[in-house]
Amino acid sequence: MGELAEPFDMALPSFMKHVGILERTGLIRSRKSGRIRTCTLEQKNLAAAERWFADQRATWASRYQNLDGLLEKLTGEDRGS
Amino acid sequence: MAAELQFEFDVDKEKNSIIVKREFAAGRRLVWDCHTKRELLDQWFAPKPLTTRTKHMEFKQGGYWHYAMITPDGQAFWNRLDYQAINPIDGYAALDGFCDETGTVNPDMPRSRWDVSFTDAKERTLVTTVVLYNSADDVQKAIDMGLKDGMASTLERLDELLDAIGATAEQV
């Protein structure tokens, strides 16, 4: 864990908190052996989460493009009448 | 259409939330109407190539919107949005959820809370949506469900498609 935290400009307890969040969301797994805790990436879950977030982004982007079109139509009608 | 309408999509894993910000080239009243009237929602809410069909809409506190997003081959994904608080035309809060055709919410699925706010941005309107899940567990359930229910595959290449459309729009 200390090795993992080293490149970050962050106190170890804060770092542990971030790692805890990643672990709770299933993005990493950690195992304790004696005084040493080792982290592994859950590649599959990480990929699934990334994909889901990308899907969510795509959903919002697409529906909002539809709304642009509708607003354009509605404001066009306003000006027309 | 102005090309540089602001769009931000952020994930806050620590707060189990998604924040979406988007500008629209119209006044706040009209943008509000598009979010709150069934005949207007039906014209835009589902992402392409899906279409929206409202079965029930009562836009008031305690009321709900029950709608389906329908694929080109006729598969329907039913959702329900329960309105918890409404402040015309500043914002509303609602509880999102997966349900069936009768409107019965799937109890195994997490519900997210939507906080949607509308603010003036010069002659445009900025819409901010915060989608908040109760816990990291709930986010995980939504991810598992999202990858299973078939909607994801329908949307899979949408990002690329949107990029292509965006590139075309910029050239015009």
Automatic annotation (TrEMBL), chain B:
InterPro entries: ASHA1/2-like_C, START-like_dom_sf. Residues 27-162 form the Activator of Hsp90 ATPase homologue 1/2-like C-terminal domain. Belongs to the AHA1 family. This is SRPBCC domain-containing protein. It comes from Dyella choica.
